[in-house]
Every structure is written in C-alpha cells, then in structure tokens.
Design goal:
Its main location: mitochondrion. One of its GO terms (molecular function) is carnitine O-palmitoyltransferase activity. It is a multi-pass membrane protein. By secondary structure, the chain is an alpha+beta fold. The chain folds into three domains: 72 residues; 286 residues, 2-Layer Sandwich (Chloramphenicol Acetyltransferase); 235 residues, Choline/Carnitine o-acyltransferase, domain 2 (Chloramphenicol Acetyltransferase, 2-Layer Sandwich). 44% of the residues lie in helices and 13% in strands. It is built from 20 helices and 18 strands. The strands form four sheets. Strands 11-5-4-8-9-10-1-16 form an eight-stranded mixed sheet, sandwiched between helices. Strands 12-18-17-15-13-14 form a six-stranded mixed sheet, sandwiched between helices. Strands 2-3 form a two-stranded antiparallel ribbon. Helix 3 packs antiparallel against helix 4.
Amino acid sequence: MSVQTRAVLSAILFATALWLFLIYLLRYTLKALLSYHGWIFESHGKMSTSTKVWLSLVKMFSGRRPLLYSFQASLPRLPVPNVDDTIQRYLESVHPLLDSEQYKQMEILSNDFKESKAAHLQRYLILKSWWATNYSTATLYLLSSPSIKCNLSASLNLFTFLPNKLRALGTVPMCSTQMERMFNTTRIPGIETDIVQHLTDRKHLVVYHKGRFFQVWLYTGGRHLLPSELETQFQRILNDTSEPQPGELKLAALTAGKRVPWARARIKYFSQGSNKVSLDSIESAAFFLTLDDEPQGYDPAITRSLDSYAKSLLHGKCYDRWFDKSFTLISYPNGKMGVNAEHSWADAPIVGHMWEYVLATDCFHLGYTEEGHCKGDVNKGLPYPTRLQWQIPKEVRESLTSFTAIDLMQIADDVDFHGCLFSEFGKGLIKKCRTSPDAFIQLALQLAQFRDQGAFCLTYESSMTRMFRDGRTETVRSCTSEAVAFVRAMEDPSRLAIFRKAADKHQNMYRLAMTGSGIDRHLFCLYIVSKYLGVDSPFLTKVLSEPWKLSTSQTPQQQLNLVDINKFPQYVGAGGGFGPVADDGYGVSYIIVGENLITFHISSKFSSPDTDSYRFGQHIWKAMVDIQALFKPENDKKTVEHSKHVHLENGKKHI
C-alpha cells in the first residue's frame, strides 16, 4: 500500500477504535451511575447533595432525546443478595405469623440451611448472574402448570403493580425488554417447561366469533388497514352465518387447561396438515381478538355489573379466549372492550400502558362518525377474512365436550369476583396526610384482612425491578410486625404514630424489593438450583410451600396526560384483577385513579366457606375510612393554620 493509503486506513482504524472506546465508556459510566439507588431511600421532598449531583450526571450522560431502547445496554444487572441478609429478612417477615414454637423451628431450619447448603447453592446463582442478563427472570414464569388462567391471566381490566411514584421517574430509565414482546408473542406449552415464542413481525390477527376462527390481514398495499377498513372486515365476520366445524367451538379450552396434556395434544394432533396451518396462524398472529356475543360493561344502575364484566374478561366461557396469546382483545356487542393478558411474557404495567393509549386515542384522536362508524373511506375491494380449517380427531372433540370444558367452567364459576369503587377519597387526600398512598392502602388491606378473618396471613404485594436489565417483579411481604402492631392498636390513642411507623416500614420493604434486595426471588432461585443439583433443603421446601392467603398488586396509571379524567370521567380505566392464589384466600388488585377514586378488584372462591369477596370489599372500605379518620385532627389543624395565613395575607394587602 502507498503511504497515503496507509495513512487513510490508519485514520479510519483509529477513528473506529476511538468511537468504540467512547461508546463503551459512555455505556459503562451510565451503568455505574444507574447502579446507585441511594436516592430511592431518601425522605419524600428531600434530596441530598450527592443525589442532586448523581441526577445531573445521569441527565448529562443520557443525551437529549433518548429513545425507548437507548438504555438497554446500560442498565445494571440484578444483583444476587447476600444469603444471610435474605434469610434474616425472611425470618423477620414470618415472625408476626408464627407462634414461639413455630418460629423457633423455622430458625433451626434456616440456621441449618445457612451452615450446610446455602454457600454451595449461592455460588451457582452468582455464576449464573455473570453470564445471564438477569439471574431470576428466566426460571420464574414458565415452570408452573396451572389448570386455568384465573391465576396467571388477568382481565384489563388487568393484573399487577408499580411503585407509588418515583421522584426520579423522568430521569431513571426502566427496562423496555417486555415492550417488544407485546405483539406476535405466544406461550407454547411444553412437557417440562413452556417457552415464549416471539416473532419479529406478522401482518395478521385471528378473530374468534361464535365458535369460528378467522384470519384477518392487517396490511394492504404496503400499509396498515385504516380503522374504517378494519370495521368492514369485522362486520363481514359478524355477518357470516356459517357453523363451527366439528370440535372448533371449544378448541381454545385446550389453552386454558393443564399445560402437559395440551403440550401432548399439540404434538400429536396439531403438528401436520390443516391443523398445523391453522394453529400456526393463531400462534403467529399479532394478537387474538374475540367478538363476544353477550354484552358486558359497568352500569351504576345494575348491581354488581362490574363484577360480571371482570369475570367475563378474566375467563369468559373458558373456550372463547386463546389464553396462550400475549393478550386477547375482547369486544362486546354494546361497544365495551377489555383485555385478557397472559403473564409469562410481561407484567401488568406493560399491557396497562398500551391500554391507556388505546382508551385515549380511540375517541379523541381517531373518532367516530355521528352514526357510530369509524371515520374514513371504506375499501370494498379488501379480500374477505379467511376461515381457519380444522380436522379435529374424535378423541379431542370428546375431551373438549365432556371433560375439559366442563372442568374448566367449574373452576371458573368458582371465582367470586367483586369490583369495589372506593370514592370517599383518593391519593389527593392521602398525600395531604404526608404518607404513601400505596402504604396507606396496604395497611388498610391488613386491617380489612384481620377484621374479615380474625387473623393475619402471609401477604404478597408485587413490586417492580425494571431498573435492572430484564427486570420483572419482586415480592413485598406486607404483613410486617409493624403492620400487625398497627392493626392491633387501632383502639390505642397513639395509633397514628404506630401507623406512620408501619407505613415507613412498608415503604422501606418496597424500596428494598425494587433495588434488588428482596426475599422471594432469591429464595425461589436457590430452590431451583437445589432441585437441579439434587440437594434436599427442608428450609427451602418449607418456604416455597407457604400459602399466600392475601395476594395484592397495584395496577399503575402511567399516562396521566393523555386524558383529562376530571373533564371526561367516562374514559377512566377501571384497572384489572386476577384470581385468588390460595383456595381459602383473597386476590386484590387496585388502581389509584386520579385524585379522588381508588378501584379495588377482589377475588376469592365460592367453594371456600371462609371468604366472601363482597364482604371483604366492605371491610376494605371501612378500613380506608377508619385510617383516614386518624388524620382528621391533623388535617383540621392544617386547615385552621391555612385559614389564618390567608387571613393574615389578606390583611396585609388591605393595609
């Protein structure tokens, strides 16, 4: 090469190396900054100098207009907690639930685990954390074998959580991995474990109506179909009077049943011919749409209409939702809609984020004509929706008719669901009490649980860990010693101080869970490693067998700027719910809507003589009001002081 060529090549290589060096320096500097979580433990309204400097550095290294996935490579990995710390926090969490003899026995089991097996199992988790982006996520959601999606699915009218509000939420990035799996995603059943199948792009959806499956193309001429064109296609399906093929009506019940029988049937009967083609069409679709034939929706004039609406979204008839799809969109003949979401691919805030956008854009951006049709021209030259073809064997048809569907409906009918619209006050008044709305509600749930059952129980609250790469959820064990002390002290004159102590404890537990220092994901992963290595641990077996009689979760309201809910209250999302985790327990999902409304979705089982969802809702209502009453003297004093201040200021103006 000539001298000039060598110089040019050297310059290119040097510039490339320098560019890569700067990119990686920026990435790892940002990762180091995002590994700092001291800000989250600071008191609300106060910010230390170190946190202010940290925030400035994060903003500086983040760039002006970061995109959705800009921070993925810079997010820190979820740390593996110290075993001793996890066990200590676990013992602290169960102390108020066990008598002295039971607690002593648990201490013996935990000490034996620490001294004999813990270090060995912990080394494997640390090793995994070095090469996996997240040591806990991969094993968490696909190993179970539920009999119906009442536990894993959610009506969105939906399912899980998020913190009350992060002061640095506009600066600190969250992992966006779950976002990309929203469409073209299906949970595929397996003999030992399921897998999540995600396809990069698909151009169709599958529609279910009166027992028939239709494939509808979403593109024409290289563009998306317009809303008016989609309306045309859906109307064609509604006008179709053809009958379901043999076995087609209840085919989707296979996805609601136990996973292993479905996996075997899928291999045996749906791996070739028209069955494979049709199943591939469903599993590769962008999402699944059910055009329901029975009206649903909330109507204040109809008692428990919200309960019926939620149950329909949660399980329907058990054969009219494809429960393996990332989500099933459900449209009712009276114009109401909802979503049933599968849980393995993502958590509630992801689908909730999408649903808030749908609610806001449907009427305010897209809009309808005066006759109620979608705006835009109608393209009558669109190809008609295609019926999926099935050749379902006799043994599968008999199973769907006589066993599977009947068993599933018995399970579904056993779900006692109640929607409680708490309108006495909302987060606006709670914040005036200088406490966290989430902590306030969680302590109200503990008070309601004690009044309902006369005892305390192991309580699950879902927390997010999306500040870490591929982060999902962690458990906040809300029934703390401080919470128990508060509930027992409700007749004590000093109960307000006890409440604040319990609320502070809950907030600290939540923050620990969010920052990678939770209890349950670590213990679960240690249990998985012990099973893999054939190591028997009575302590871990005992921990994993404990029932969550009260399972709770907050559905976040994330896009408050899309709709003015004070001006358009009819466009408020109702949040969502999930089925009870324990047969004799409750599942409670709640959403804090604006300043003056909190919606609770409560589930239990009719077959349990000890639970009643409506009764529990009444206990929640009274608990919320009773706790708020503790602050009334304090609020009244503030009101008087404010009035004096206003009077003084007015006086100065007059002078």
